[in-house]
Specification:
By secondary structure, the chain is mostly helical. The chain has one domain. The chain is built from eleven helices and no strands. Helix 5 packs antiparallel against helix 10.
């Protein structure tokens, strides 16, 4: 028997998506408590030379992650959310143990794990991550604010942004989102570089980042599926989501 998609069904779906959005926004608190201070001043702990190169390093990490994650799809099956989180947490501990140098070396590997996890979530919602358009949508998830940024539901621009490959390339999309992601990853590096507790902070930050971006991927692709399911455009869905988040 076919399901009749009524406004009530849409409202229920939006409520579930809002719950995931709120969950994503709460995972970074433990990291800030661990390393001390506020998210906005974490970047100030990084050496100037690192801050100056961070955006370029982030863009290269995204390009390498896209190649590795896409090529691995025919070899390694998608893993569960839990396993992705465990793997990234372990890598964060290793990266943080050696301070900033090992944290920088670990960055592309963690980015690959995150992107592969996002691709797996896209599959859960019926999308094919081998298609260039869906690859672009997977990358767009990285345009979210990051787990250490304060967000009251107002920062939803990345959800309503229309991703199109017309007149551009996936590399162009990477270049567009790299500045936003570099700020989030800079906070991660600064947290991992905290003396003495680097390994613990590294594990905590990677746990937070993996949890955050996986939840945001669920939000992103759930909205895409809802748009097709109910015939509602994405900006309208994002507006409804924003209202649901603020009302909760």
């Amino acid at each position: 028997m076919d399901i009749v998609h009524t406004p009530e069904n849409l409202e229920q779906d939006i409520a579930l998506i809002a719950k995931r959005y709120r969950k994503a926004g709460g995972v970074g608190i433990q990291v800030l408590n661990l390393v001390g201070g506020q998210a906005e001043n974490l970047l100030e702990r990084l050496p100037d030379v690192v801050k100056e190169r961070l955006e370029d390093a982030t863009q290269k990490a995204l390009e390498a992650a896209l190649r590795a994650a896409t090529r691995s799809r025919g070899v390694v099956p998608d893993q569960s959310t839990w396993l992705n989180t465990v793997a990234a947490t372990a890598m964060g501990a290793v990266g943080g143990a050696g301070g900033l140098p090992t944290a920088l070396a670990e960055l592309p590997v963690t980015t690959t794990v995150l992107l592969r996890a996002i691709q797996g979530i896209a599959v859960e919602y019926g999308f094919d991550p081998t298609q260039p358009e869906i690859q672009a949508e997977c990358l767009q998830v990285f345009a979210a604010a990051g787990p250490l940024a304060a967000d009251d539901g107002a920062d939803m621009g990345f959800l309503s942004a229309r991703v199109t490959l017309t007149g551009t390339t996936v590399q162009g999309i990477i270049a567009r989102i790299a500045p936003r992601l570099s700020a989030a990853l800079g906070q991660k590096l600064a947290a991992q570089a905290v003396p003495v507790i680097g390994a613990v902070a590294g594990a905590a930050t990677n746990y937070a980042y993996t949890s955050y971006y996986q939840e945001m991927a669920h939000v992103h692709f759930a909205l895409m599926r809802a748009g097709t399911k109910y015939g509602v455009d994405r900006p309208t869905l994002v507006l409804q989501l924003s209202k649901a988040v603020k009302q909760s």
